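Hi C.,

You asked whether I'd gotten around to modeling the 160-residue construct. I have! Everything is below, sequence then structure, no commentary in between.
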Amino acid sequence: MKYTRFEELPVWNAAIQLAERAYAFTSQPVFSHKRSLRDQLERAALSVSNNIAEGFERGTTQELLTFLYISRGSAGEVRSMLCLLERLPEFANFKSEISNLKLLAEQCSRQLRGWADSLQNTDIKGTRYLNEKVKRLEQRRKDRHEFLEALHAAREEGGH
């Protein structure tokens, strides 16, 4: 499936869910004396979806890759802060919420890694480079490839 808007991306939706749940978690009174930690956790969680969106809108594969890795780094930052919270005594009653948030952050990270891996193995430069000349060349390449496949299949059928 070809996505035309970042809002359609499953990984962006997972990242938005991570941010929503992080904001809900940080609204707990236990964060009232941990303002800097709360703010940093919220910023990092929101950064995951924001960097996916920014990279998607940039229009080049290389810039998208850069922002996917930044996004992945933010997901790691979220997990790191949640690991700290697991060790703080005042968060002992929030083990389940912390675990669920860590799982969401890990899922985002895995999806981002898979997408980045697939982009690294493509010749597509990005929509910014898709002018009419490039589109014609790409269509010719595709037509040639299909012709050669059909020719190979015909030879196989003929026993040659």
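If it helps when you're writing up: DSSP finds five helices and no strands in the chain.

Thanks,
B.
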